[in-house]
Design goal:
The chain has 448 residues and is mainly alpha-helical. It folds into 4 domains: 2-39, no CATH class; 129-248, no CATH class; 263-361; 370-447, no CATH class. The protein contains 23 helices and 7 strands. It has helices at residues 2-6, 10-24, 41-54, 56-66, 73-80, 84-99, 114-126, 137-150, 156-161, 168-181, 204-213, 226-238, 242-245, 250-261, 264-277, 285-298, 324-337, 344-361, 372-385, 391-394, 401-408, 422-425, 441-447; strands at residues 28-31, 34-37, 104-106, 109-111, 395-398, 414-417, 435-438. The chain has a 3-stranded parallel sheet. Residues 43-122 form the Mga helix-turn-helix domain. InterPro entries: Mga_HTH (IPR007737). This is Mga helix-turn-helix domain-containing protein.
Length: 448
């Protein structure tokens, strides 16, 4: 399976594993053709950063980001000590990756909106551990002081002991300062013309001043401090760091939800989801959390360089496949809600959370509970049974006795029965126009 996923032969995989073992002291186990990583996770993370830093792709991208003068492919290839043919192949991949976020390469220099550039560098440094800029002791001291000053519950030593918890947000601030000193000012950036208006909270000095002013979130009022809500929403869009989340009270978090629901982006997203899935997303804590997570990722969809965030809800951690019908529905919702295409990995995470919720709650109104084969059977039998209504009202998944009791009182039905309910089926009197489809185990697994 692993060989198929990465498109190599078995002997090539074994050679790669041997190299990782010899060069990075990684331990692997192979049992029944399944590869198991036996090394502790924190060590693997550091090794992954070493691999990223040694990657030709990232080395080339780093050089392009640091270039201040135009260079041709011959010069770039020579500096990287690679052939020109390899250089052209790398450049093609890099241009394709950058184009997804509104950036391009012109004569060896990455060009585009300055804020997008800063976000890209912050992602590369915080997530992949790439060393784009060099930070001296003064830079480190400044960022430590800034974090501890903004968070009274933290001391300097706590921050020094947890460098891995420096977030994308803190990186973004210090990168902004460095690039301004190097002659990359943030002027006339499109981000100031959209949504944010004249509030320049992206600028480092403004952010620092606002944090110092609004440390005690619980004392702020939505009506009197609209600036706070705008600022806080912006912070939530670009960071998931513990330093800020630990400051949220139940009241301030609710204010943030309310602010989000009042925006046109949020209303459109909520309406599209509810129309598609026939479910009230606001009255469910799980779905409201998911909805807000989508909002954070896509509110500033024209310029936000998205990190591949992992959902913290346990639904997304289950070992399950996303049903193709649900995935297509989620993809349609995002296409209607946002102007910028969303990465496939994010769509699947959203679909997985929704799938886990609907299965857990036995919400029978959602189209995910209409298996594709069940929907086909419904369309075939509809005229013969004289049924009416939409498919999601007719096709039902019946997982338990209580649900079955409700269904038998509703008249004509097409009922899909899971194996765990077969033993109860004979206890009920079904109407003459009720069709029962007994699912086999393989269909159940496909559904889940």
């Amino acid at each position: 399976m692993l060989c198929e996923d990465i498109g190599i032969q078995r002997y090539q995989l074994l050679e790669i594993l041997a190299d990782l073992r010899d060069n990075y002291q990684l331990s692997f186990g192979v049992q029944d053709d399944v590869v198991h990583l036996q090394t502790e996770y924190y060590k693997v993370e550091e090794i992954a950063k070493q691999l990223y830093n040694s990657s030709l792709f990232f080395r080339c991208l780093r050089q392009l980001l640091l270039n201040r003068r135009k260079k041709n492919m011959t010069q770039i290839s020579k500096e990287l000590m690679i052939s020109q043919s390899t250089g052209y192949r790398l450049m093609k991949k890099i241009k394709q990756a950058l184009s997804n976020y509104g950036l391009e390469v012109v004569r060896g220099i990455v060009v585009g909106d300055e804020m997008k550039m800063r976000m890209l560098i912050a992602i590369l440094e915080s997530k992949y551990g790439l060393e784009i800029y060099h930070y001296d002791k003064h830079d480190y001291r400044w960022i430590y002081d800034w974090i501890t000053q903004a968070n009274g519950g933290l001391d300097r030593q706590n921050v020094l002991d947890n460098p891995r918890q420096w977030s994308y947000f803190e990186k973004l601030v210090i990168i902004g300062i460095i690039r301004e000193h190097k002659g990359y000012p943030l002027v006339e950036s499109p981000v100031f013309q959209r949504d944010i208006g004249t509030q320049k909270w992206w600028l480092s000095d403004y952010i620092r001043d606002e944090i110092n002013k609004y440390v005690d979130f619980s004392q702020l009022s939505l009506n009197s401090e609209v600036t706070f809500i705008n600022y806080l929403a912006g912070v939530m869009v670009i960071t998931k760091t513990m330093f800020f989340h630990s400051k949220f009270t139940a009241e301030s978090r609710q204010k943030l939800y309310d602010y989000a629901f009042s925006s046109s982006h949020y209303r459109r997203l909520k309406a599209n989801l509810e129309t598609t899935f026939k479910t009230d997303f606001y009255n469910s804590d799980i779905l409201r959390h998911l909805l807000f997570d989508i909002y954070r990722e896509n509110l500033f969809d024209q310029y936000l360089f998205r990190e591949e965030r992992e959902f913290e809800t346990y639904f997304a951690q289950r070992d399950q496949e996303v049903h193709p019908l649900l995935y297509r529905l989620v993809k349609q919702v995002f296409k209607r809600s946002f102007t910028t295409p969303v990465p496939d990995v994010y769509l699947r995470k959203v679909a997985m959370v929704l799938q886990g919720y609907f299965m857990e709650q036995l919400d029978l109104r959602c189209p995910i509970n209409i298996l594709e084969n069940g929907h086909t059977i419904y369309e075939t039998l509809k005229s013969d049974m004289a049924l009416s209504g939409d498919a999601y009202e007719i096709c039902k998944i019946v997982p338990n006795q209580a649900t079955m009791t409700t269904l038998t009182a509703q008249g004509n039905q097409l009922i899909i029965v899971t194996p765990d309910f077969w033993e109860y089926l004979d206890q009920f009197s079904l109407g003459p126009n009720t069709v029962v489809i007994r699912m086999v185990k393989s269909q159940t697994l496909a559904m889940m």
